[in-house]
Amino acid sequence: MTRYFCVFAALLCLLLPLSASAQVSITDDAGDAVTLDAPAARVISLYGAFNEIIAAMDLTDRLVARTRADELPPEITALPSIGTHMRPNVELILGLRPDLVFQMAGRRAAAGEAVAALRAKGITVTVFDIHTFNGLFSAITRMGVLLGAEGKAGELISSMQSRLDAVTQAIGTVPHRPSVFFEVRYPNLLAVGRGSMVNDVIRAAAGANCVDSPRKLVRLNEEELLRLDPDVYVVQQGPMNPDPLPPSERPHFRTLAAVQSGHIYTVDEQLFSRPGPRSVDAVEELAAALYPHLFDNTGEKP
Amino acid sequence: MSNPGTHSSRDRSSPIRGASSRGLVLGVAALLLSVLSFLAACTMGPFHVPLSTVWDVLTGAHGVDDTARVVVLDIRLSRAVLAWLAGAVLAVAGAAYQGVLRNPLADPFTLGVSSGGAFGAAIAIHIGLTGSLLAGSGLTALPLAALAGSLCALLVVLMLGRLAGPFRRETLVLAGIVVTTFLSACIAFVKSLDEEAVSAIVFWIMGSFQGRGWAHVLLFAPYAAIGTAVVFLLSKELDILALGDTQASQLGVNVDRSRMLLLFGASFAAAAAVAVSGIIGFVGLVVPHLVRLAIGGAHRPLLAVSALVGGLLLLWSDVLARIVLPGGAELPVGVVTALFGGPFFCVLLARRARRENA
């Protein structure tokens, strides 16, 4: 008996360094420790932006599924769909045997319930909650750790950071940052507050979000918008705002400075609202709109 | 409902005259209050407009700041007018429904008008019919879709009610419940198809005057006028219908036709209210009860005073919805009416129970 035990213990000692060498672990944004015995080889993201980050690290072949609405990177459309970001299908996910599932923290309970249901079935889930570039870089770093691609993650971050720096330098010091209003939805006007990634995109493009609320999304009435009277009015177009009425045609908007001066820009919802590699594109696009004399029309740096 | 046919004329004259003079006093008071409330509503909101400026805008003085003009006329006054009209229409429709169905729990949404409108709106939001319909008016296809939904649901309910042979109140109420339940399931189906649109659909259903303006008043007015006119023209028939079908027929009323016309007129007006404001509960249920307590059940004064009181109630509910939250956020007005209406209705019920047991 003791001899068996000794052999077993010896074997264990041999195995430990092996497993420890491949083991990866991080703490996610929900405060949970996530540990994998080896870098994840089969990955599912329940939020499209993570697919874009994984593709930017050249790891698209690790993805084994997508959510219904995902279209980027293009090769992902060949993968099976496992439901939606809010209501992923646990059965389909289990069947694909993923090592790791990424989820974006949501305000609504549904996203959290989905995470709990997957964890109950023994699947490792990592939750990120991103609303600034710093948070995005931190999440990319940790994704790099879990995927065993710290080098790629570092390259991605430094290339994004250098593009952000280039925008900051091109603009230089400005006496007055134009105040920006970002419309999430109309009618029933919904704007972005300080808790949204868009807020940080506006900041990085040297604009000032005129909505001062800690929340991610803020419901406003038209009168409050007239009181804020932003210099620039940005309308997002996408799933949340499929067919927005042009602000110049809205009855209560005609006295807005942004409407009268024509500083109205329509932007792509997915580009602006999704924290990912393309958030830098969003910053460049918005900076070119806010400071047209500093950038040429393509939004590229001169 | 008291039955006035059981008293001799001399006993009856004093309470009836008392009730009608009370109705007149209450009506005049509500009318004056309404005018004052329109003025008051113009002065309240997150955007600071000095009282003198409000007065200048309202009196059409020259040289007023354009933004102040938009705030006072296009946002505050247009919303106050729309809310008042919608409240008036919902209260009249509620009184008509309660009279025709002889059911104190009937409200303007008994025959599926609300869920039909909500389904129409949900489809419009899902397809994305939020682009402009009439350039510069701010009017979109959304209210038209809601109106179409309401009227289709109403027709289905009335047809179901007729299928079962002659008019039976219970059949009609049941048909309303069935159609409402079915459409609620359809709305839930649309919501689960389209996660992005869920909050927009939910917000619409909760009822709001946010972003509405004069264009909505113009859209709403003709339907509301036709519907309420039909109800008012048949107010005498409403009184006679309360006596029961046999007696009403003996008194020469075409029971079936006037009932159908009344229901259709009330629903038509209520559908228009739903189209421009979403689903605002309790106004059509509580106001007629309240007014009946104050001035009795004769329908002509009841309808008139209910309209005035319902308008006042919804106007102030909308003012509260506009100003109660800090930072320019808005409450859905349907939430405000429900928060006030629920407890209030409980008090009414308790009082009524006490009176009946006394």
UniProtKB/TrEMBL annotation, chain A:
Pfam families: Peripla_BP_2. This is ABC transporter substrate-binding protein. InterPro entries: ABC_Transporter_SBP, ABC_transptr_periplasmic_BD, Vit_B12_bind_prot. NCBIfam families: TroA_like. The keyword Signal applies. Keywords: Signal. Residues 42-294 form the Fe/B12 periplasmic-binding domain. Residues 1-22 form the signal peptide. It comes from the Bacteria.
Automatic annotation (TrEMBL), chain B:
It is found in: Cell membrane. The keyword Cell wall biogenesis/degradation does not apply. CDD domains: TM_ABC_iron-siderophores_like (cd06550). It is a multi-pass membrane protein. SUPFAM superfamilies: ABC transporter involved in vitamin B12 uptake, BtuC. Gene3D superfamilies: ABC transporter involved in vitamin B12 uptake, BtuC. The chain crosses the membrane at residues 20-42, 77-97, 109-129, 141-160, 172-193, 214-234, 261-290, 302-325, 331-350. The keyword Thylakoid does not apply. Keywords: Cell membrane, Membrane, Transmembrane, Transmembrane helix, Transport. Belongs to the binding-protein-dependent transport system permease family. FecCD subfamily. This is Iron ABC transporter permease. It comes from Oceanidesulfovibrio marinus.
